[in-house]
Amino acid sequence: MTGYQFYWESDGAGGARLLRAFGETAHVVLPDCIGKVPITEIGPYCFAKDRKLPGAYRIAGERDDTFFHELSGDYIESVILPDSVQKLGSFAFYNCRRLKEVAFGGTLHKTGSDVFMNCRCFSRMTVRGDANKLTGAACILVQVSSEITLVFGKGEEKAVLLFPAYTESYDEIAPAHIFGRKIEGEGVRARQCIRGGALDFAQYDDVFPSACAAAEPERTLCEMAVGRICYPAGLSSQARGRYHAYVREHAAFLCKTLVAEKKIEQMEVLCENGFLDREALETAIFLASQSGWAEGVALLFSIKEKYFPENKVKKERYAFEEIPYTDA
Fold it and tell me: Which phi-psi region, left, alpha or beta, contains residue 136 (left: φ > 0; alpha: ψ -120 to 50)?
């Protein structure tokens, strides 16, 4: 528990409900236990600014403002929750406007309301669980309308899926203040690909043609395609063909994006599986060189030599006896 100090209370079932945390860094990695008590729940408004604590909380460790900072609001940027956490309380990350990523285990199944309300930078959720099993990802996805990447990092069926953003508005359709709900963006359909808490890969892949027709941003579509290609859990041959066609058509933009984000691993997977050709890779090498990324240039050259070796022209050799003799 070095590096943290906690306020907590009992969850009533032998675990700890975390109420407030203090630490030394904006990148928070919570331990499994407070003392010997497992952290099973993140309490309401736990990481929100100006949380009013109940009177019956407990203190673990001595508070030292010289080293510890309140882990709340605009201070925190990422939070890794332990596998013991099973529930996120309502408004747990309310107004954490610099929060970008949250990771949790496969045992988290319950969430309160508006857990990530006003988390303007929240864009990545990592689940240490199997993509084919029940997780808390579905509960969170329906609460986040902005673009978010969902990563499953455990088990054989690893997956990386990007869910596009969508907007929701209400238009008055009658004088008696009756409003009609209007939703724009394929992000809503993408979020409906979870059945019983588990991912339905086929339904997610069926959203891609609609997203293309709806003119979702090119960067969004490229990321959707690359995520499925590089981590093809449950990917059918038909869906693979659609992603392949899109990547080949948008290879120049994709190379520019991957080089800018220094995603060499994805570039190699795309080349290995025939999604990018020699010309696209040479474009990536040029872009890396132009940006001054020397390490990237070297790595991309090694990928080029591995998957697109130069055709070496063998020099034709003649035996002396084959050369016609002429008498001067």
Answer: alpha
Give, in order, the Cα–Cα distances in Å from 193 to each of 56, 165, 189, 204, 265. Answer: 42, 15, 7, 5, 27
Q: What is the maximum span of the chain, computed from C-alpha positions, in angstroms?
A: 114
b vs e for 172-186, b when ≥16 Cβ sit within 10 Å of the residue's Cβ?
Answer: eeeeeeeeeeeeebb
Spatial distance between the Cα atoms of 38 and 174, rounded to a whole number of angstroms: 54
Cβ neighbours for 234, distance < 8 A, ≥ 6 positions apart: 132, 157, 159, 199, 201, 202
Tens of pLDDT, residues 139-184: 899 899 999 999 998 655 689 999 999 987 666 665 666 655 666 7
CB-count exposure of residue 204 (10 Å: 0-12, 13-18, 19+): buried
Closest CA relative to residue 35, chosen from 65, 58, 52: 58
The pLDDT value given to residue 75: 95
Q: Tell me the domains of the chain and their CATH numbers.
A: 1-122 (3.80.10.10)
All residues at 6 or more sequence positions from 270 whose CB lies less than 8 Å from its CB, including other chains: 226, 229, 230, 247, 254, 276
Tokens 């100006």 belong to residue? 50
- Tokens encoding 259: 């080089």
20 CB-near residues (< 8 Å, 6+ apart): 6, 7, 46, 51, 53, 57, 70, 71, 72
Q: In this structure, are residues 74 and 28 in contact, taking their beta carbons and an 8 Å threshold?
A: no
